[in-house]
Specification:
single chain, 567 residues, mainly alpha, three-stranded mixed beta sheet, two-stranded antiparallel sheet, 5 strands, globular
Length: 567
Amino acid sequence: MSLKLPKNSNEMQDWKWNNYEPFFEHLLNQEINSDNIESWMKYWSDFSEMIGEVGTDVYVSTTVDTTDEDAKKRFNTFLEDISEKASKKNQDLKKKLLGSGITPDNFEIPMKAIKSEVELFCEKNLPLMTKDSKLSKEYDAIIGAQTVDWEGEEITITQLSPVLLGTNREKREKAWRLAAERRLKDRDKINKIWQKILEVRIQIAKNAGYDNYRSWRWEYLQRFDYTPDDCLDFHSGIEKVIKPFVDQLINTRKEQLGLDVLKPWDLSVDTLNRAPLEPFEDASELEEKCHNIFKAVDEDLGNHFKIMREQKLLDLANRKGKAPGGYCTEYYHRRLPFIFMNAVGTHSDVQTMLHEGGHAFHVFESDKLPYSAQREVGMEFAEVASMSMELLAAPYITSENGGFYSSDEANRARIEHLEKVIMFWPYMAVVDGFQHWAYTNPEDAMNPENCDAEWTRLWKRFQTFDDLDSGEFKEVIATGWHNKLHIFHVPFYYVEYGMAQLGAIQVWGNALKNQKDAVEKYRYALSKGGNATLPELFQAAGAKFAFDENMLNYAINLIEGQIKELS
């Protein structure tokens, strides 16, 4: 290849499209044959990684500070001037590869994905997908600006979380109501964002010749191993197997708290009236102690995290203007991860750090695969990497291992985590069920009042809550979909958590018998990247890709047994 690539993405930060285009043309003008397929693929892969890394830079900058107008402008410029045009050129390159009739070594799975992408591609959708991304950033800006006055100080809603864990019920109620009232103030704004997003997504499906956005998105997400009906059956299994156990947990909580009626601000407090766990004071302590835990799980994983610390690939503390939630993304050319979260000093933050650490290790473990397309992992297994790490790390969260807790506190934290795992599945069914409804009934979903009604219906079906029909909570419950960023950012990305959690439970079940062997299989599965089918990846990790009633029963029995053992 005679046209030399830049050394790294830093050289490309100020590039315009005319700087990118010659590299695409160079690839398109090359004849592909058995002698040069590896070098051609490597060139394409390296260049794609650099473009992706520029994209990561501009995306991260918009999340660390949602008020940064320059960052927002750079992000939008990249989407409009680079990303759209690069997508079109990459489409031509995919066609060229398919037309060559040559499949690179160990490239069968990515080739299947490329074929699907070529069939799905519609040029008219490129500006619409850009618009979708921009609208999700508008949503972030609304959420990021949600602050309240608490005891004379302006704080984010996220910073109220420790109060909701406290033993002072009056304070919990005040904090909960304050947060709820603040969120409702943005009701109209978020509804308008939703209507615009839905309109865009409906048009994307139409342009590509699909009956509805769900069908289009299914193909886009390359869900080759399961169907929408499988997901709906998963919901039913959760209702049958998991919800009765959640009902028990809720009733036990009510009894232990000595309450006739459980209120929303009673759902997070410790049932034995113990003060909230306070695992760390600041982000640096969270970072240090998680590093110790990762080293205890596996020395190499600990070294991976050490690299992240040294290269400042962590932004952990919550602050005003920061985007909501947490994520792990990748600087593709350097093959290094970046972790973003909003830590405020709770055990939930510890779990988030362990979770995102699992994603980060996925990047490190798969970095030996030569082509970027081989490292693109379906979220169904990507989340196994993160959720498994939460469970694999659990035995090492004690101060004895350099972690956060005494032995008793660690047992308490582990029980809380396992109970949250159980309670997550019904919530997941609400989020996923809502999206199935919205995208197969788009005319109804265009009216936010119908969305509120459907969310409430699903909430009643899957959740256990005394005051569900109480007038004072109706609005808060009905607009719960406003608070789920996945609905606005990554449509249909949520059921993966439910599937992956079942994979992680199996990895954990193996670890209870032999921790070392389970970690080795876990790392082996991560090293395969996306270069295998979902069933194959699960199998490599020592698990089965299944989310039926039998698997749900296995999970609930294992969790229930461990809760009893830790109690």
